Amino acid sequence: MHMTVKEDVIRTMREAGKPMSAGEVEKATGIDRKEIDKAFKELKAEGAIVSPVRCKWEPAE
Fold it and tell me: Is this model's pTM higher than 0.90 or not?
């Protein structure tokens, strides 16, 4: 089963072990930036990712 873009984004952030920008996630995953921006927006709304530094995000838990 293919993972959703949101799952890919979270997994990529966990593996990186550091806050990432949407551009860094795009480079790491090869997923289209529009898809990543959409996933970021949904993840932020769900409280699944937090921003410890400006313009960078990491998983909330």
Answer: no
Q: Are 57 and 9 in contact (CB under 8 A)?
A: no
Using 50, 70 and 90 to split pLDDT, how confident is the model at 25?
A: very high
CA distances from 32 to 17, 22, 47 (A): 22, 10, 22
In CATH terms, the fold of domain 5-59 is Arc Repressor Mutant, subunit A (1.10.10)
Calculate ∠ Cα 54-60-61, nearest 5°: 145
| Residue 22: partners with Cβ closer than 8 Å, 6 or more residues away | 33, 36, 37, 40, 57
Neighbour tally for 52: CB within 10 Å: 9
